[in-house]
Amino acid sequence: MEPILKGRGLVKRYGKVTALDRCDFDLMPGEILAVIGDNGAGKSSLIKAVSGAVVPDAGTVELEGKEVRFTSPIQAREAGIETVYQTLAMSPALSIADNMFMGREIRKEGWRGKFLRQLDRQTMEKLARDKLSELGLMTIQNINQAVETLSGGQRQGVAVARAAAFGSKVIILDEPTAALGVKESRKVLELILDVKSRGIPIILISHNMPHVFEVADRIHVHRLGKRLCVIDPKDYTMSDAVAFMTGAKEPPEAQAA
Amino acid sequence: MEPILKGRGLVKRYGKVTALDRCDFDLMPGEILAVIGDNGAGKSSLIKAVSGAVVPDAGTVELEGKEVRFTSPIQAREAGIETVYQTLAMSPALSIADNMFMGREIRKEGWRGKFLRQLDRQTMEKLARDKLSELGLMTIQNINQAVETLSGGQRQGVAVARAAAFGSKVIILDEPTAALGVKESRKVLELILDVKSRGIPIILISHNMPHVFEVADRIHVHRLGKRLCVIDPKDYTMSDAVAFMTGAKEPPEAQAA
Amino acid sequence: MSTSDDYEKTVSTAASDVAAFDDPHKGFVGRFHHALHTTPALVPLIVLLASILVFGLALGSKFFSPFALTLILQQVQIVGIVAAAQSLVILTAGIDLSVGAIAVISSVVMGQFTFRYGLPVEVAVACGLMFGTAIGALNGWLVAAMKLPPFIVTLGMWQIVLAANFLYSRNETIRAQEIAEQAPVLQLLGAKFQIGGAVFTVGVIMMIAIVLILAFILKHTAWGRHVYAVGDDAEAAELSGVNVRMTLISVYAVAGFICAIAGWALIGRIGSVSPTSGQLLNIESITAVVIGGISLFGGRGSILGTFFGALIVGVFTLGLRLMGADAQWTYLLIGVLIIAAVAVDQWIRKVAA
Amino acid sequence: MSTSDDYEKTVSTAASDVAAFDDPHKGFVGRFHHALHTTPALVPLIVLLASILVFGLALGSKFFSPFALTLILQQVQIVGIVAAAQSLVILTAGIDLSVGAIAVISSVVMGQFTFRYGLPVEVAVACGLMFGTAIGALNGWLVAAMKLPPFIVTLGMWQIVLAANFLYSRNETIRAQEIAEQAPVLQLLGAKFQIGGAVFTVGVIMMIAIVLILAFILKHTAWGRHVYAVGDDAEAAELSGVNVRMTLISVYAVAGFICAIAGWALIGRIGSVSPTSGQLLNIESITAVVIGGISLFGGRGSILGTFFGALIVGVFTLGLRLMGADAQWTYLLIGVLIIAAVAVDQWIRKVAA
Amino acid sequence: DGHSVSACLITKTDTNPFFVKMREGATAKAEELGITLNSYAGKVDGDHETQVAAIETCIANGAKGILLTASDTSSIVPAVQQARDAGLLVIALDTPLEPIDSADMTFATDNFLAGELIGKWAAASLGDAAADARIGMLDLAVSQPSVGVLRDQGFMTGFGIDVKDPSRWGDEEDDRIVGHDVTAGNEEGGRKAMENLLAQDPTINVVYTINEPAAAGAYQALKSIGRENDVLIVSVDGGCPGVQNIKDGVIGATSQQYPLLMASKGIEAIAAWAKDGTKPEATEGKAFFDTGVALVTDQPADGVDSIDTDEGMNLCWG
Ligand SMILES: Nc1ncnc2c1ncn2[C@@H]1O[C@H](COP(=O)(O)OP(=O)(O)OP(=O)(O)O)[C@@H](O)[C@H]1O
Ligand SMILES: Nc1ncnc2c1ncn2[C@@H]1O[C@H](COP(=O)(O)OP(=O)(O)OP(=O)(O)O)[C@@H](O)[C@H]1O
Ligand SMILES: [Mg+2]
Ligand SMILES: [Mg+2]
Fold first, then answer.
1. What residues contact A53, with CB distance under 8 A and at least 6 apart?
2. Residue ranges of domains in chain A
3. Domains recognised in chain D with CATH numbers
4. Contact between chain B and chain E (3 or more Cβ pairs less than 8 Å apart)
5. Which of B90, C233, E163, E206 is deepest in the core (most CB within 10 A)?
């Protein structure tokens, strides 16, 4: 099977810091790939490089076997890659519906959409509400309330719902449960499994080992800007994974990248 | 035994939201008290109310049996309460040493300190370096580098080290490990136990149940702006705790607040 | 961590009453607070109506006549148009100090192209509008692509454009009489018509039209939403799929275009083409925007608020003049008004929160 | 979550090579880059030296004489002093548009208290300095306690103070000859002394002294560190133990005091007390601050940079005039310079990053 | 009180002593004649919009007449026409409108003549040395407002310099001119502009200044390099501090104008207009009512009429 998303030799430098150091990366169709690693290992940089948020200094990215060069997140989105960044990327003063449809607004039918370029708020609001309740993530009364009035957990939920609603090929989640409570984390994990059941592959970055071992099909261990190895959660224990990612243990030869 | 820090009937409203709803609170000398609760339950609001970061609308706070009314974090600090806020509260452009001694700078001896009010950088840098390495938290080469050049984990480390170094009566940590990797989290937990061994009581807010059950002496379960109950981790399981805090189970009568 | 159990499973039986919101519509006061919150233009509107009422009571029919009230509209038309442009820029968390200079040089281009080069006046007007747009786009490019702070870019551009204006125009005024004879289209926006005692000019209609069109665009088109998103948090906007660079460049370009229209209206209002007019437009437009409740940090506020803000200043200026206040006292009171308006705004927002 | 083990214990055996930093001092280029990063005043200093060199080569001894070079110092002294005050405010992420008005009204108070009320001149000067400080403190109070945006507070204050200035002074100038006869202390900062061909005034020394003292205070006292912390992130500063309110009020008050000194220097420079001077000081001081590399978002930059920034503008103004550029072209080129200086600054920072 | 006569005074600014005195003169006369006077002013020199708004306010206020010193002499015409159509008498003070007959009458100084007088005096005082004089020109603003141009070009004409285009300064080719710089008409600008010109050519020995504050600033610059006694400074205005400065030897000569006279004549004209509709007449041979200009100096030169500073002090206005 060919990877749906493939990175080769990715390099990204920030001044003196090398965030990505000739890093390889593979996501298989339909799988949940977890990416784990220490703080500052370069996990966020990796997903930014494949999702167009930063342009890598070197290396190639292939989507479904075709090489792509995203220079902005918009291009990646158009290609079907949807990302929830660690910083969430929401406009606090705008409404939930506005945020969900940011950059892919729906215009009215007929002349008002065509010539006045008027937005179809009703449709967008209805769709946003549907997505949110379909995902069962929360009970939001007012789809027009500003995102800044939501709690951290609700905000994270909206971001994940946006990605799940629009991602057609790949969904990337960068630490989606970091600030969440037990209950809220649980909901996000359920959502991830739900998206997977629809056949869409997911990249999940997390520091929470139990979560990773619960949902991941494969685990990409990232260390010092590189893919150290890829392991199967059924073959290794959490201790092994932590040992690999912290450098306490050598990675298994066969699966080393 | 009398609580070292005691809150009674604390109320805090933000517009229509009631973040604290006649909340009580007790911290015993020498203990590690964990505070758990859903997102938005009001945990951060509670510790802000007892540490002077917000002034409660109603209710009283007692430190060592004497009523105190802090109107700014400075007053709480002067009374010996040191807090690591969820947002860390660092000045990104200033150095590690500057940040550690912010608001309690050390002046030079003699006329230069007295009349020119000149800071004693050498002493402050030496002390900062000592604190950081004494706590074994990290190997920082340059104590003068700007905090913004540190990784998230290093930053968290500096914040915790600052609190541990200066807190004389109470140390409060609001989700100190939320953004940290496995290794970094571990170090913070070790640090917490180390501080406790010096006899200083600690309040720890965390969503990480295993961590809470590992280090806490007592667990304050917060729900809907109130203290629901206080439980002993030796008497209850994590499932119980989660059930209480999410409202799935009634709290034990005896310990209900 | 030796005590391990399936604690996370517990949450499936958890109560789900957390994300429910209070119904904010509680009685009249509640609804009023809610309205203040969701309609940022309401506060300046209330201030505007209150000040009209106060001056009306104090001055009687002198102030409360169709003539005087429409006079205010005429007096604020230039500032109103420029402030609309300024609002756009400030909504993106920028600031444009070059608005006045762009307006003036555009009017000079319109005049000189007609009279110096003998171009058909319609072409000259089009050139003026394009010129203003181009300067705006250059501002936008420097801000968006070169990532220079808007304050500096437009501060520099202000000086450059103003000096270029004096050099190019040779400080010569094109007289109203000549324009009326040879190129009346230049004065189009000054054309008057009466409805009862009320006197309107095409320029006033233009101002109102620009405000309404921008209000529609900002609220009902994707571009408008993107303007708010960029002002709110440019990085988040970029990550969530907004082309920040093109949004910024287009905002500054549109602002330049609107300023050029203001330059055209300026010819209508003063009759002639004068390179020395419009010197205070940048400060006056920022004042109107701020009194109108748009945050200088971007992303919050409405263009209708700016319109009311400009009118508030106009009402105060005319009212104080009619009351015979000395010019310096008027400036002093406008200064107090600026601070007071923002203080009231802050206070209302706090109470309403 | 059924696979549970003591995985966290593993980390005790983990490698600890993560927090190590590269040694940034690699060779000359590396060290230069590092210096650019840690010494924000270096970039404007380089630009300053380069521009002196270029004009020196182009104009020879006409420009490169002690006379011309010290003339620049004399010409920038007022702007330099005011820009020092402006720097303080901008470091706290504020802005002060009222600096020029404060300087002028302080000089008027000094003059009128001496001549209208016959107070001893030393007392009058002290009153002027106190008056400037008081206006600054009022600005600070409105910003810190009322939480109003600095731009608006000082915009309003600018108008209020300027109008009050004209009303109070009745637009009357106090002549240089009268001052020289009856109250020479007012002209103290204009007193000259020569060292070789170089001419210095007490005002120039004052400017340099203010810059050096502020540089010391900002770097070596707790208050200075607090100013940076407040500008960096006011909320974080508050939580980490800084009295943000008092810091802000004192910053604006000190800025008012320094502006009052600038007002005193103004008397020394123009000889007389004139209520119409200093109208452009706010824009000029902001220009100097920005060219000097202080971020308008606060918390970053150094006051020495501002000093160099003011000198850069002075060097360009005189240099261009000496090269025969006429006044209008000089304005235009200064506009270009402002944008270019910031672009170069951005570029150097990017390359050095 | 709709029955009493009201009038408006609109000046360029209300911060320049010249206009302040004009207002004082008008106020005094208005009180004497029982007229209500409202005064308006632009915010800065060149602030045209405020003047237009002021005219509109006067119309709304039902004033009988307007006294106006226009910032923009041509652009103001439509607004003036509107006022005249509404039955107001509009009198231009100090600065003629363009065309001059746009106002009902103009009470003004002949600014070109004012410049010419000081030019002649400077040339005569220098005598033969005038042929190789080094002249610094301190003008008003880069936007070249007409007062500044008239005085500047008048000075040159009086001094015997070919002015080329008389409607702008800076296009002359005479070698004796070191350069032009702008002062904003205040001391600060005067000093800086003088320093700039001195750096260009330290041998400057004749300085034309737009007004007396600029002259005072220029004097400070000269004094700081010890050349205050060998440079001839000439100026225009005739304000009391300016005349005092001539007495003290700061300025060589100045052309004095009479703003109080302009203002009081203007108020009288409005009173007459309100009473019986008579309009004021122009000075013979001129398109405006010349309120006169006199050269004030303590060193009279041959062939140039002048008054001394004692007389100048009696007539001065500020
Ligand atoms: N915009 C940036 N400018 C400078 N350095 C950066 C930038 N973004 C990331 N870095 C640096 O690159 C390295 C990798 O960062 P990255 O965010 O990819 O780590 P991460 O694995 O996602 O860490 P975490 O688990 O803390 O999110 C870090 O040293 C970081 O400081
Ligand atoms: N400054 C504020 N303004 C308005 N509402 C606030 C503010 N701070 C907190 N709140 C609201 O108060 C409630 C309690 O917030 P708080 O931060 O105390 O929760 P928490 O228990 O710390 O949650 P988390 O686990 O997500 O940190 C929330 O509904 C929150 O939205
Ligand atoms: Mg990351
Ligand atoms: Mg919290």
1. A47, A73, A76, A83, A85, C238, C239
2. 5-84+149-246, 94-145
3. 40-352 (1.10.3470)
4. no
5. B90
